[in-house]
Write a structure and sequence with these properties.
289 residues, mainly alpha, 8 helices, 68% helix, disordered C terminus, transmembrane helix, transmembrane, Riboflavin transporter, membrane, transport
Length: 289
């Protein structure tokens, strides 16, 4: 990625967002997870009856496989086409050569565009953002939104997936390089995710469950958190990309994976071992005893 033009970094994250949006739309089109709530007079209760899918699981995975193959072909074409060298940034090649000779570590103090402390701060932001968007929010999504009903749950899935590529593309329109603004946006993300965790902890008794405000806050918190996380990932990667030190973009990817790993390691025992979250019933409305 360092060899190509800087705009390719933003488009990479747009594609990363689309990789989640397309399967989500495909799953909703299939009708996966939809149920009909039917009252059973013999048991005097409402039971969830799964709705038959519009197409089979085989078709679903064939479409996903086709989508992955399209991405693979695009990646290969960027490297094997005769005109591929024209979209590479010649300045990046020069800076890569000089950087390889003068910088073999993560935090080189010779970079005049990005200081050592600024690089550490950006990598910390990357770790926090990826921990939340990849490790925390997906695991508590159903716990936080299902108490408000299937409609709110599906809106959270679709709108969050839609906000991902859109906010990544916003880095073209609203380029941000200030660390203070990044810190402010990261704080907003942490606040939104804290509210999401609070909603999940209250499941199956949703906060303001029977009101429009409660549903709006639930959907809004997911959209804001997902959108800002996607935006922050993109602008942080672009900022490190401009630092003229190739290793920093590499370490950005490493810390992204580290953040996702931390989020998964923390949330897995909380959900599967300690069972601190309770799933809301699909059909019946849970009330506080």
């Amino acid at each position: 990625m360092y060899y190509f033009h800087q705009s390719f970094t933003s488009m990479y994250f747009v594609g990363l967002g689309l990789s989640g949006l397309i399967p989500s739309i495909l799953s909703l089109s299939q009708g996966s997870g939809n149920v009909n709530c039917i009252f059973n007079s013999s048991t005097n209760s409402t039971e969830a009856v799964p709705v038959e899918a519009r197409f089979s699981v085989t078709v679903f995975f064939l479409i996903i496989c086709l989508w992955v193959c399209i991405g693979l072909c695009a990646f290969l074409l960027l490297h094997i086409l005769p005109d591929a060298t024209e979209i590479q940034n010649p300045n990046d090649k020069t800076s890569k050569t000089s950087a390889a000779e003068t910088d073999s570590t993560l935090l080189s103090s010779q970079d005049v565009h990005l200081s050592r402390s600024q690089c550490v701060i950006l990598l910390a932001f990357t770790t926090i953002v990826c921990c939340l968007i990849n490790g925390v929010m997906p695991t508590v999504q159903s716990y936080a939104s299902l108490p408000y009903g299937q409609t709110v749950f599906q809106m959270v899935i679709v709108l969050s997936s839609l906000a991902n590529p859109i906010c990544s593309y916003l880095s073209f329109v609203v380029p941000v390089t200030s660390l203070r603004i990044m810190a402010l946006l990261t704080s907003v993300v942490v606040i939104a995710c804290s509210y999401i965790l609070y909603l999940a902890s209250q499941s199956p008794f949703g906060v303001l469950k029977e009101t429009f405000v409660g549903s709006f806050l639930c959907v809004g918190s997911f959209v804001i958190a997902t959108g800002l996380c996607s935006f922050l990932r993109t602008i942080i990667a672009n900022r490190l990309r401009k630092s003229e030190v190739e290793s920093r973009l590499l370490w950005c990817g490493i810390f992204s994976q580290l953040g996702s790993f931390i989020g998964a390691v923390v949330m897995f025992p909380l959900i599967n071992v300690y069972n601190i979250f309770s799933t809301a019933p699909v059909c019946s409305s849970a009330t506080v005893p």
